[in-house]
Amino acid sequence: MSALENRVPPLLVAGLIALLMGLSGPRLPSIELAWTARLTFALPVLFLGLGVCFAGVLSFRRARTTVNPLQPQQASVLVEAGIYQYSRNPMYLGFAISLTACALALASPFTLLGVVAFVLYMNRFQIEPEESALEALFGESFARYRARVRRWL
Fold first, then answer.
1. Predicted pLDDT of residue 54
2. Has this prediction a pTM greater than 0.90?
3. What is the pLDDT of residues 52-87, one digit of tens each?
4. Does the keyword Signal apply (predicted)?
5. Which of 2, 80, 83, 119 is 20 to 30 A from 152 (CA-CA)?
6. 34 Rama sector, left if φ>0, alpha if ψ -120 to 50, beta otherwise
7. Buried b / exposed e across 105-137, counting CB within 10 Å, b at 16+?
8. Distance between CA 93 and CA 89 in Å, rounded?
9. Residue 66 backbone class (left: φ over 0; alpha: ψ -120 to 50; beta: rest)
Protein backbone atom coordinates (compact mmCIF):
# COMPACT_ATOMS: atom_id res chain seq x y z
CA MET A 1 0.00 0.00 0.00
CA SER A 2 1.30 3.41 -0.99
CA ALA A 3 0.93 6.63 0.97
CA LEU A 4 -0.87 8.16 -2.03
CA GLU A 5 -3.61 5.53 -2.30
CA ASN A 6 -7.01 7.16 -1.78
CA ARG A 7 -5.35 10.17 -0.15
CA VAL A 8 -5.54 12.97 -2.74
CA PRO A 9 -9.00 14.02 -3.92
CA PRO A 10 -9.33 13.27 -7.65
CA LEU A 11 -10.67 16.77 -8.32
CA LEU A 12 -7.49 18.18 -6.79
CA VAL A 13 -5.35 15.86 -8.94
CA ALA A 14 -7.21 17.02 -12.06
CA GLY A 15 -6.92 20.65 -10.98
CA LEU A 16 -3.18 20.39 -10.37
CA ILE A 17 -2.63 18.74 -13.74
CA ALA A 18 -4.77 21.40 -15.45
CA LEU A 19 -2.66 24.06 -13.73
CA LEU A 20 0.56 22.42 -14.90
CA MET A 21 -0.84 22.13 -18.41
CA GLY A 22 -1.83 25.79 -18.36
CA LEU A 23 1.59 26.90 -17.12
CA SER A 24 3.55 24.73 -19.53
CA GLY A 25 1.29 25.01 -22.59
CA PRO A 26 2.40 28.49 -23.66
CA ARG A 27 6.05 27.41 -23.44
CA LEU A 28 5.57 24.29 -25.57
CA PRO A 29 5.27 24.05 -29.34
CA SER A 30 1.67 24.55 -30.38
CA ILE A 31 -0.60 24.51 -33.39
CA GLU A 32 -1.30 27.96 -34.74
CA LEU A 33 -5.01 28.48 -34.20
CA ALA A 34 -7.01 31.56 -33.34
CA TRP A 35 -8.42 31.62 -29.82
CA THR A 36 -11.98 31.39 -31.18
CA ALA A 37 -11.08 28.24 -33.13
CA ARG A 38 -9.52 26.75 -30.00
CA LEU A 39 -12.67 27.44 -28.02
CA THR A 40 -14.82 26.04 -30.82
CA PHE A 41 -13.05 22.71 -30.32
CA ALA A 42 -12.51 22.87 -26.55
CA LEU A 43 -15.88 24.01 -25.20
CA PRO A 44 -17.99 21.09 -26.50
CA VAL A 45 -15.38 18.67 -25.14
CA LEU A 46 -15.40 20.47 -21.78
CA PHE A 47 -19.21 20.32 -21.61
CA LEU A 48 -19.09 16.61 -22.46
CA GLY A 49 -16.59 16.03 -19.63
CA LEU A 50 -18.67 17.98 -17.14
CA GLY A 51 -21.81 16.12 -18.25
CA VAL A 52 -20.14 12.74 -17.75
CA CYS A 53 -19.01 13.80 -14.26
CA PHE A 54 -22.48 15.06 -13.39
CA ALA A 55 -24.10 11.84 -14.62
CA GLY A 56 -21.81 9.85 -12.30
CA VAL A 57 -22.62 12.01 -9.28
CA LEU A 58 -26.33 11.87 -10.10
CA SER A 59 -26.26 8.06 -10.25
CA PHE A 60 -24.59 7.93 -6.83
CA ARG A 61 -27.09 10.39 -5.35
CA ARG A 62 -30.03 8.40 -6.73
CA ALA A 63 -28.59 5.24 -5.15
CA ARG A 64 -28.06 7.13 -1.88
CA THR A 65 -24.45 6.07 -1.50
CA THR A 66 -21.29 8.01 -0.79
CA VAL A 67 -19.67 10.11 -3.48
CA ASN A 68 -16.51 10.50 -1.39
CA PRO A 69 -13.67 8.92 -3.39
CA LEU A 70 -11.39 8.87 -0.36
CA GLN A 71 -13.69 6.51 1.55
CA PRO A 72 -14.77 3.76 -0.90
CA GLN A 73 -15.26 1.34 1.98
CA GLN A 74 -18.27 3.43 3.05
CA ALA A 75 -20.22 2.59 -0.12
CA SER A 76 -23.63 1.24 0.79
CA VAL A 77 -24.68 0.16 -2.72
CA LEU A 78 -22.89 -1.09 -5.81
CA VAL A 79 -24.07 1.39 -8.45
CA GLU A 80 -24.53 -0.31 -11.81
CA ALA A 81 -27.30 1.85 -13.32
CA GLY A 82 -27.19 4.99 -15.40
CA ILE A 83 -23.80 5.90 -16.79
CA TYR A 84 -22.25 3.13 -14.67
CA GLN A 85 -23.56 0.68 -17.27
CA TYR A 86 -20.87 2.02 -19.63
CA SER A 87 -17.97 3.04 -17.39
CA ARG A 88 -16.96 1.98 -13.89
CA ASN A 89 -15.39 5.41 -13.35
CA PRO A 90 -17.43 8.06 -15.15
CA MET A 91 -16.42 10.87 -12.81
CA TYR A 92 -12.74 10.23 -13.49
CA LEU A 93 -13.52 9.79 -17.18
CA GLY A 94 -15.24 13.18 -17.10
CA PHE A 95 -12.15 14.74 -15.52
CA ALA A 96 -9.95 13.19 -18.23
CA ILE A 97 -12.27 14.52 -20.95
CA SER A 98 -12.17 17.97 -19.32
CA LEU A 99 -8.36 17.87 -19.25
CA THR A 100 -8.48 16.99 -22.95
CA ALA A 101 -10.53 20.16 -23.45
CA CYS A 102 -7.76 22.11 -21.69
CA ALA A 103 -5.21 20.61 -24.08
CA LEU A 104 -7.40 21.60 -27.03
CA ALA A 105 -7.68 25.16 -25.73
CA LEU A 106 -3.90 25.34 -25.34
CA ALA A 107 -3.42 23.87 -28.85
CA SER A 108 -0.24 22.13 -27.76
CA PRO A 109 -0.15 18.39 -28.43
CA PHE A 110 2.41 18.02 -25.63
CA THR A 111 -0.17 19.05 -23.04
CA LEU A 112 -2.02 15.82 -23.81
CA LEU A 113 0.67 14.21 -21.66
CA GLY A 114 -1.23 15.75 -18.74
CA VAL A 115 -4.24 13.61 -19.63
CA VAL A 116 -2.01 10.53 -19.80
CA ALA A 117 -0.49 11.41 -16.41
CA PHE A 118 -3.97 11.81 -14.91
CA VAL A 119 -5.14 8.42 -16.21
CA LEU A 120 -1.99 6.66 -15.00
CA TYR A 121 -2.18 8.30 -11.57
CA MET A 122 -5.87 7.53 -11.18
CA ASN A 123 -5.44 3.89 -12.23
CA ARG A 124 -2.68 3.28 -9.71
CA PHE A 125 -3.52 5.45 -6.71
CA GLN A 126 -7.29 5.82 -6.83
CA ILE A 127 -9.06 3.19 -8.93
CA GLU A 128 -7.07 0.09 -7.89
CA PRO A 129 -7.58 0.78 -4.14
CA GLU A 130 -11.25 1.63 -4.76
CA GLU A 131 -11.77 -1.62 -6.62
CA SER A 132 -10.13 -3.59 -3.81
CA ALA A 133 -12.49 -1.97 -1.32
CA LEU A 134 -15.52 -2.62 -3.52
CA GLU A 135 -14.53 -6.24 -4.02
CA ALA A 136 -14.24 -6.65 -0.25
CA LEU A 137 -17.68 -5.05 0.22
CA PHE A 138 -19.64 -6.57 -2.64
CA GLY A 139 -17.69 -9.74 -3.51
CA GLU A 140 -19.01 -11.68 -6.48
CA SER A 141 -21.44 -8.91 -7.46
CA PHE A 142 -18.53 -6.54 -8.00
CA ALA A 143 -16.52 -9.22 -9.81
CA ARG A 144 -19.40 -9.74 -12.27
CA TYR A 145 -19.80 -5.97 -12.71
CA ARG A 146 -16.06 -5.54 -13.30
CA ALA A 147 -16.12 -8.30 -15.93
CA ARG A 148 -19.09 -6.67 -17.69
CA VAL A 149 -18.18 -2.94 -17.61
CA ARG A 150 -14.89 -1.40 -18.65
CA ARG A 151 -12.84 0.73 -16.27
CA TRP A 152 -12.85 3.87 -18.44
CA LEU A 153 -14.80 3.35 -21.67
1. 98
2. yes
3. 999 999 999 999 999 999 999 999 999 999 999 999
4. no
5. 2
6. beta
7. bbbbeebbbbbebbbebbeebbbebbbbbbeeb
8. 6
9. beta
